[in-house]
Amino acid sequence: MAALGLAFGTGLLGGCASDSARDGRDPLAELRxxxxxxxxxxxxxxxxxxxxxxxxxxxAGTRKVFKDMLWGAGASGMVRVELAKALLSDTDPEGIEDTxxxxxxxxxxxxxxxxxxxxxKSAAERGWNDFVPAMIRSYxxxxxxxxxxxxxxxxxxxxxxxxxxxxxxxxxxxxLNPPASDTTSLPVDWAERTRVDAWDLLARxxxxxxxxxxxxxxxxxxxxxxxxxxxxxxxLKTIPLTGEEIRWxxxxxxxxxxxxxxxxxxxxxxxxxxxxxxxxxxxxxxxEPVRWAAAHKPEWLEKSREELLAIVTQRIEPREHYxxxxxxxxxxxxxxxxxxxxxxxxxxLSILVIDEALAEPTIVRRLFxxxxxxxxxxxxxxGGTIRATETMSAPPTSVTGKPVPFVATLYPPRPGQRKNxxxxxxxxxxxSSSDTALLHFHMHVQKAFNSSYAxxxxxxxxxxxxxxxxxxxxxxxxxxxxxxxxxxSNGAVIDMGEIKLLEK
Length: 504
Hints:
This protein has helices spanning 2-8, 10-13, 16-23, 27-31, 38-50, 57-71, 77-88, 93-106, 113-126, 132-139, 153-161, 167-176, 190-205, 210-218, 224-235, 243-252, 258-272, 276-279, 287-296, 305-316, 336-339, 345-358, 361-376, 428-432, 458-467, and strands at residues 383-388, 406-410, 439-444, 471-478, 481-487, 493-500. The chain is α+β, with helices and mostly antiparallel strands. It folds into 2 domains: 2-167, no CATH class; 314-500, no CATH class. Strands 2-1-3-4-5-6 form a 6-stranded mixed sheet, covered by helices on one side. Helix 3 (16-23) crosses helix 5 (38-50) and helix 20 runs parallel beside helix 22.
């Protein structure tokens, strides 16, 4: 009973068995009653647990019910916290080990913050260092309500368990040495999931990648992925900053993909000629604009950041603009003059190359064709990619037989991925086919006159953050007229003005 008193407090335990007998109700049945108030249900947890003897068949049955409810979504965080406390109070070594394994599996994707906090606190108090990778995975998920990183329960627990290292270093070491699956308690792809999530956490804690770049360069690991990142640093002057960018890099490095190999050679050759002091550490999305500019606008690569900003301003400012009036939680401004000083050299070069693509009549016509298809489909938003045709092994040609400089490819979401007519979900086909693409785009064209939604939503900005891509959203303004907004992973949103459907 002493252990139970520590877990629940004496006030909860006093008279549990007699209370159950007195009211004649089965506390386990009351706990499982979804119609009962949550506070009442949470009070039944200790009663149900205390009504059984350790090692008995009834205790085993109660444990199974508790585990099923803790895993499921049929109870509130209040109830599930009490379930976790009860299971952690077990005095049977096999029982506590079973609970330990279950909580370690739960933590990475547990959504309820009260449950996350209880698991992290309990693991830290017990010195369960094997929970650190699971804590890193949980910590990788953004929680907008928690503005201060120091308040995260995962961070507090990690600092308790590994007091002699910064959390960033712990995350990097978890990335380097993720726990391998033993096929009995961990899924077979646990290590890969852990690596991606650890890198996503570092994307938030090390936003510019400078820390990770130095760790990669100074280390002596022969890990295949680290070697690929060193190649990216050497050839493209970049590293992937998010888990999705890791997947992007790995596809680019596949030796059997000849298009990607050729692109890598051309991009690295163009980037090698750039003065490092001009751009610092590039983002992965910058490599294709540099490659394209080296082939078609080499004078742009000679320009400073300030000179590129002046060119972008001269192009964009005179155009007609439409600003989103349906407010987001994130950045509100879409004006170039308010973002200009925060845009890096590679960002401005990207905008210029994208503007060149949008000046192509074939691209404009194709985008309006995509918009028409989207408007007819009320189950989802449509999107796709724009890429330079010279990166393709079989580039298309125009009806006149002339080469087409850019191509826009539509990738409608698969049936199972369609959420609603106001959400775009990129298909796996789209992601895997866009390694050398200039950008990702999607539509806000539920109606022809949709100017109040002219710009990315919070979900769209999250997409750009996760995938690390240059993105466009095209919004219906009127028949034959759409507004174009550029956005990227640092939250910058630039209204690039309108495009018109011209007569052929």
